[in-house]
Structure formats: structure tokens, C-alpha cells
Give the backbone structure.
Amino acid sequence: MTTVNILSGGAAQGLVHGLGDAFKAQTGFGIDGEFGAVGVMADKLRASTPADLVILTQALLTKLAAEKLVVASSIADVGRVETALAVRNRDPKVTVKTEADLREVLRSADAIYVPDTKASTAGQHVAKVLDLLGIAYEVTSRLKIFPNGATAMRELAASSATQPIGCTQATEIIATDGIALSGSLPSGCELVTMYTAGMATQAAHPKEAAALIALLTGADQRALRQRVGFAS
């Protein structure tokens, strides 16, 4: 089966998978591609990795359009995703209403599962928050860093730690079996990121790429976007 190839931030993986059947029924095409830290995906496009469309942060897509790697007129917002906390299903959820609450929760965790702190949206933010809270030096040895949020959350689900916690995009938490969305980050530490989709300049299947962007962003799929963790 012919496929449309995607390079996408991990935040959109659940949504893309949820649209597979509808896209195949509409176009006869499947969906293939890679999901990971947004910085890594952007660099793959820059390195000429074949792609029909990309789903990345709004800021990155704007840069790629300026670099003539994405068709500017094709860019459309998918939705906002918050960075949130995760726990294993068997563990009690944590509630953090203030920076002090978050500081205590992170100090109490014996393992903190996060995505790449250099190339991923959520991982970069976690690093900033640890600095803001003044505990980066204290918890660095407990950070469990993985290439992307999906991997970090799978590892959290399988963790044998006594009191682990995770922090990544809400969509990646919701999409992972064995863990639960525990709550938002408090005021002053929050991050809500707009994700956008755009057609690659060198798309092999531009018509189908446009159809998938329309599905990702269309009103008919609003309920699915909300279910997997996107806010309109």
C-alpha cells in the first residue's frame, strides 16, 4: 500500500494513529513516518529525509517555512498541548497547585522520567523548571532521560522505582498504557505548546498530504483531538 510519510513531534502520534482508518478510506493511502523530539524531526527534514508533511511546534514550522523546506501556505494549526505530570496507574495521583508543591513532588520522586532535555519541547521545559525551582543539582541523578516522550512514558509504566513520576506532553501520557495523566504544572511552571502541520516542499504525494492536514485540523475530528489530549 502506498503511504504518506510524516515527520512529527511525539505529541501528535496518538492523533495520527487515530486517523489512519479514516485517511485510508478517503485516499487509499496508509500513513508512515517517524515520531520523536521536535528538534530531531526538524533536523531530519533538513537532512533530506523523505517526508510529505511535518507536524511540529508552530515556532519550528515557521523556521522550516523560512528555510523553504515547508510550504508556508499549507501550514495549519492542529491544537495546543500542555506539558503535564504522569504516574503509574497503580500509584496515587499527585496534585500540584503551586511551585512549592511541584518542588516537593519532584524531590520526593526516586526516578523522574522525561524526554530529551536538549531536543524535545517538554524535555527542554523540564530542564528550565528544575532550574527555576532551584533543585536541578539535587535531582539530576534521578532523571531518566529518553529520546522522546513516548519512550519515557513506556519506561515509566515499566519502572520498578518506589515513587517514580513522569513529565511530558499530555498527549503522550494519554496514549501510553499503564500510566495516568496526573495533573497540570502550576502557574509559573506551565507550558502549553501549539502544534501545526505543514506540507514538505519536496512532498512526493502533495494531494494526499493536503488531505491529511485537512483531517488533522478539521472540525469533524475535534472530538478525537480532545480525546487524545489536544485543546482547540
Observations:
- The beta strands are 3-9, 30-36, 53-57, 76-88, 111-115, 143-146, 164-169, 179-184, 192-199.
- The longest helix spans residues 121-133.
- The chain has eleven helices and nine strands.
- The two ends are 32 Å apart (CA to CA).
